[in-house]
Amino acid sequence: MVRTVLAAAVVSSAVPAERADLAEIQSRGTLRLLVILDDDEPEFVSPKPDGAPGFDRELLEGFARLHQLKVELVPAADWSGLVPSLLQGKGDLIVGRFTATDARRKSIDFTSETFPTRSVVVTRKPHRAVRTVEELRQERVTILKGTAMGEQLLELGVPAANIDYSIPAGGIPEALRAGRITCTVHDVSTAIVTQREDPDVQIGVAVGPAMSYAYGVRKDEPELLKALNEYLGNVRRSPTWNRLVVKYFGPAALEVLQSARQ
């Protein structure tokens, strides 16, 4: 997958980096969002100046309006740079498909869940949908080399000989469409988008632990964390969250997410 930073479309603030909690952010007037901008998958944060802003950005624009703030996107070059940039005060929170993990919690805090995530098995017709772990063990499963998914598949009893690392990053969706591979594993949000664009894609059994996307916040931002959690709680109790899921991921997304959680 090619990730591009559109510097011309979104320019980070010229204000010097600073560590700021909610009061200081309100004084500044901008909420700075550290993000990986991806013009191939804009469902969470779109880098395009026109059109829908994306699930996370639209959520946070609502939060910003409540606190009389403007939203500013601060692009990061790669995933490994997000937490260091936050700790250096280059942004106020990390957004966009950012998984709340135990390793990351050692350095930063996380809001409550913004979007559920889990790995799911993906195939494409006419190949069968993989509905059980036993069926998965019979498949040749193509995944990216160097990810933790290889270990998870081995723990599930998939033979090592059945795990295929031959496709480079970004090539798996096309290889699936072309029939060069028959089975892979995606995070559920990517699988939903892939199926929306190609109805022959089938989402099968969930594998690995259920996890959460959330916004990353520095540990010295307790008031910002509290305000975000209150806002997110209100959103989840209202129709807004479901509406945004359907808007950005399609009407089938709610059922798929619920199934992945089980």
Give a written overview of the molecule.
With 262 residues, the protein is an alpha/beta fold. The chain has two domains: 22-114 and 214-251, Periplasmic binding protein-like II (D-Maltodextrin-Binding Protein, domain 2, 3-Layer(aba) Sandwich); 118-210, Periplasmic binding protein-like II (D-Maltodextrin-Binding Protein, domain 2, 3-Layer(aba) Sandwich), CATH 3.40.190.10. It is built from eleven helices and ten strands. The strands form four sheets. The protein has a three-stranded parallel β-sheet. A three-stranded antiparallel β-sheet has the order 8-5-9, with helices on both faces. The longest helix has 16 residues, at 222-237. The radius of gyration is 19 Å and the shape is elongated.
Strand-helix topology:
Elements lengths: L21 H7 L1 E6 L19 H12 L3 E6 L6 H6 L5 E2 L7 H4 L3 E2 L4 E10 L8 H4 L4 E2 L6 H7 L7 E2 L7 H7 L4 E5 H10 L3 E13 L2 E2 L4 H16 L2 H10 L3 H9 L1
Parallel strand pairs: 1-2, 1-3, 6-7
Antiparallel strand pairs: 4-10, 5-8, 5-9
What average pLDDT do the residues reach? Answer: 89
> For the largest beta sheet, what order do the strands appear in spatially?
2-1-3
What is the number of helical segments per DSSP (H or I, 4+ residues)?
A: 11
Overall 3D form: elongated
